[in-house]
Design goal:
Elements: H1 3-7, E1 13-15, E2 17-18, E3 29-33, E4 40-45, H2 49-66, H3 71-87, H4 89-100, H5 104-124, E5 132-134, E6 140-148, E7 151-155, H6 163-174, E8 178-182, H7 188-204, E9 211-214, H8 218-226, E10 233-237, H9 240-252, E11 256-260, E12 265-269, H10 275-287, E13 297-303, H11 307-318, H12 339-354, E14 358-361, E15 376-379, H13 385-388, E16 395-401, H14 404-412, E17 416-417, E18 419-423, H15 427-434, E19 443-446, E20 458-459, E21 462-463, E22 470-471, E23 480-488
Parallel strand pairs: 1-4, 7-8, 7-10, 8-9, 10-11, 12-13, 12-18, 13-16, 15-16, 18-19
Antiparallel strand pairs: 2-9, 3-4, 5-6, 6-23, 14-15, 17-21, 20-22
Helix pairs in contact: 3-5, 3-7, 4-5, 4-7, 5-6, 10-11
Length: about 500
Amino acid sequence: MHDFLKRLGIKEVNSGVFSDKWLEGKGGEVTSYSPANGEAIAKVTLATKEEYEEVMAAAQESFKKWRTVPAPIRGQVVRELGEVLRAHKDDLGRLVTLEMGKIHQEGLGEVQEIIDIIDYAVGLSRQLYGFTMHSERPGHRMYDQYHPLGVVGVITAFNFPAAVFGWNAMIAAVCGDSVVWKPSLKTPLVAVAMQNLFAPVLAKHGFPGLFTLCTGEDLVIGETLVNDHRIPLVSATGSVRMGKIVGAKVAGRLGRSILELGGNNAIILTPSADLNIAIPGIVFGAVGTAGQRCTTTRRLICHESLVDQVVEKLVNAYGQVRIGDPLDADTLMGPLIDEDAVQQMQAALEKVRQEGGEVLCGGERVDRPGFYVTPAIAKAKNEFDIVQNETFAPILYVIPYSNLDEAIGYQNGVPQGLSSAIFTNEMREGETFLSHVGSDCGIANVNIGTSGAEIGGAFGGEKETGGGRESGSDSWKAYMRRQTNTINYSSELPLAQGITFEF
């Protein structure tokens, strides 16, 4: 076993269940495989419903105490978690790469995202503000304030096995909430390692159940968590299909949900665009993380006058993408997560051909152990069924357009609405794209790609992407309950709206 795994507390068989201590995990076990070579890394035991109850009891008990801690003090505890991550950044980044398959620089970047959100959360802990309003009644003052919400459930996907938990948990923690984490069964070791890192810090401060871990099957732990009335907020990242199930079940019990679901992100390339920055932006957006980001560039809406020139440049650039072991510093694209992902990519390219499109390059399986493919470029139409649906793989559809209105129509003409971008040097085109008649996505960029959001802004999308927001801006409000307060400091009792009530 790698030395860095040992430093993260990973053993050959690991518990995937933590309440205020590690539980046995009596619900069976799952083996984590590296997509880089298909070899087993280690095993993780899964929770039963009975163990879920132990986890929830610990989370509830921690919440009752944690919510009474002043928010700036909560921020100081969270700050210590950031120091632990800084000390173990390389090891945890390597584990993300080993278990998920993204290249090492992206693995390190994922851990850095958590460190950054922790820094943001520490500052936020002194800025959980409300507003004061003027009352219509003399001698009255009105204001609103935010209180801790409760136990927050976090369901994460394989493609960002560390960062998405960090986005949610660190903000929730400074807001006064405790967290129950259900990680993807494709990347459970990252969750175990993070719990190993965080648990001693939280226990030292007297809150061992603040962050709990409940690794388990969807039909056992996932269903239980989503239907649990003791969890007022569920943050779930995954497919649209999963999100529709989670959203309906949580809404059915009048709970709240933050849904970060599929993306079908497009870049519009205009005649005035600077291709020196556009081409690298397109390639990274389409190829980075082997096309397994929710913000991956999947459609290039290219002006018809540029198509031949741009396709030539892209095919040339794709030929230079170094595919291989993601832990090798020279690698630019690692493997897909598993065999199913490879098959889905190849099925999607076959569907392109069947619908009348043309595969220009890529899509072949690389002859080596693991789940490697070459990134693909295909000419297509926006209305193709396969283009309307997200394939979690490095496929870029090139779609010609003739005018900006048509391009924006294509951009918005899909069910998903996460990230979008335009490359242009025309101010009017950029401003139109950002206006109410422009992109309908939650993220809209000018002269940068669709991928690589900063933590300071709210992250999330519209339509089938789910409408949730995480990370920066005022996303913290989702993790708190809002309360309006009115104080009467007069000796009278006037009623609102001028109502009189005498007896």
